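#onboarding

Welcome to the new folks! Below is a worked example of what a typical request in this channel looks like: someone posts a single protein sequence, and someone else replies with the predicted structure as tokens. Don't worry about understanding the tokens yet, we'll cover that in week two.

Example request:
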Amino acid sequence: MNKNILILAVCTFVFFSCTNDEDVVSSNEKGNLPDITVKNGMLVFKDQSVYESTERRLNGAGLSDKISFLDSVGFRSQLYIMNEADQELESLCTSESADVFSHGYKIFKEKYEGLFMFNDIEKTDLSPYCRLEQLDLSIFANNDGKFMIGDSLVKCDCFETFSDFSSKISYAMLDTDDSYISTRADEVNRAHVKEDKRKVGMY
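Example response:
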């Protein structure tokens, strides 16, 4: 008798526990929206507070951490695509044949030149460059340079040509805009560091 009562009590407890769990799930689904979502091909931050906290968290993060963040939300931002392009170019530059490399680089450039810029001033620089004037937004921006904070659309300013980008760097140097120089010059330097290795594929 006591054994049957104990079994009944346990079953009742389990039943109510499951019911409470279901209520929690339903409440979460119907209640608070996720802080960061992807909608209509754009990254959407719930509000300004979420955006600012995410920006602060990722500002000092390494590339691998930024890519992990993008994987976690299921979004391929300009930074994500640039990383893929960079890996493709590194692989392409291991080509042993100049003909294979030339053909492969032509396809590579055609694939990415709509989204990124290429250096049409220094032809030995093979790297793609981000068009966004504010480079750190590339982690959030889609191919059109857009993302959302709440109901507000953010449209990033972009360079139309590599010459515009180059001129901006030169003007910033004259204007002593150190923050801009350091941000964009880092991108240039990273590209040129790889340039020597990438030239191997050209010969």
